[in-house]
Amino acid sequence: MVTVRAPATSANLGSGFDTFGLALDRPADIVSVERAHRTTIEVTGAGARYIPEDPEKNTVGAVAEALDAPAHIHIDKGVRPASGLGSSAASAAAAAVALDELYGLGHTREELVPVAAEGEAAASGEAHSDNVAPALLGGFTVVADDGVTQVSPDLSLVACLPDIVVSTRDARQVVPTSTSMDDLVETVGNAATLTVGMCRSDPHLVGRGMDDPVVTPARADLITGSEGVEGAARAAGATGVTVSGAGPTMLAVCEPGTRRAVAMAMIDAFDDAGVDATAFQTSVGEGATLYD
């Protein structure tokens, strides 16, 4: 048996739609695999009852098929589905690393990114790499057609997950199909600022760079109380707040020493909007990790 832990991730980060991704230290999925003549899947943990165990409909089944590596696969979900925290990517990344190790296939982590992305397609209908790249490699990743760039910043983060559901498909339907030149220039500038901030582990630059005039406002409208949550987080010490992935999780980058205050402020603001929420006080995490 091979067991792998893969982290939750936050994609987009505001200005980096379908390009930026960030691994979180917590929560995480744990996937165990054993050789078998055909692939079978068992799912336990957060939201397990909503996840299909049919290999043709499950993200890890697609990974096993892509690697030609049939196995009995057990997924212990720590990342809730439809959370905006890369739930399907965490499972796909963990399965890709575990199956590669189980069968001695010898792929690099970079080579496993498109394999895990095939698993994402089973969950969302499209093979995006913005979540699977940080789930595999850790740190902050920039996905392009010709590969992935990665750095490992040191940042304090809060991921606040409200007790509502926003599906990836629904969140994609509200994304504008065009934008103005002014908004394009602003987004490019913010994305560049965020990237420099990641390279410097600078929460102020990262926070400034998370601003996005195009995609985030449309998705924030799907999250009850999002405006109040952002304001409360900033007042408590967050340097930037955005929608994590497709939502509904809100991600905050924090001043050192303010993470607990930011987490409580975000929970209280969701409560004021009549929504229960859970906050993960976290940081930038490692990629998928083999258990000894």
Note down, in words, how this protein is organized.
The protein is of the alpha+beta class and 292 residues long. It has helices at 59-66, 87-103, 109-124, 132-137, 168-173, 181-200, 203-209, 215-220, 226-236, 259-272; strands at residues 2-11, 20-35, 40-45, 71-77, 140-144, 147-151, 156-162, 238-243, 250-254, 277-283, 289-290. Helix 1 (59-66) links the parallel strand 3 (40-45) and strand 4. It is globular. The model has no long low-confidence stretch (mean pLDDT 94).
Characteristics of this structure?
292 residues; alpha+beta; Alpha-Beta Plaits; 2 domains; 7-stranded mixed sheet; 4-stranded antiparallel sheet; 11 strands; ATP binding; Ribosomal_Su5_D2-typ_SF; Homoserine kinase; homoserine kinase activity
Brief summary of the model shown:
The protein is 38% helix and 26% strand. The protein is an alpha+beta fold. A hairpin with an 8-residue loop joins strand 1 and strand 2.
Q: Report the order of strands and helices.
A: EEEHEHHHEEEHHHHHEEHEE
Q: Report low-confidence residues grouped into runs of 5 or more.
A: none
**Fold-level CATH name of the largest domain:** Ribosomal Protein S5, domain 2
C-alpha termini separation: 11 Å
Total number of helices: 10
Number of domains: 2
Number of strands: 11
Mean pLDDT figure: 94
User: What does the overall shape look like?
Assistant: globular
Instruction: Supply Rg.
Output: 18 Å
- Which structural class should the secondary elements be placed in? alpha+beta
How can the largest sheet be summarized?
7 strands, mixed
| CATH architecture group name of the largest domain | 2-Layer Sandwich
Could you tell me the strand content as a percent range?
25-35%
Helix content: 25-40%
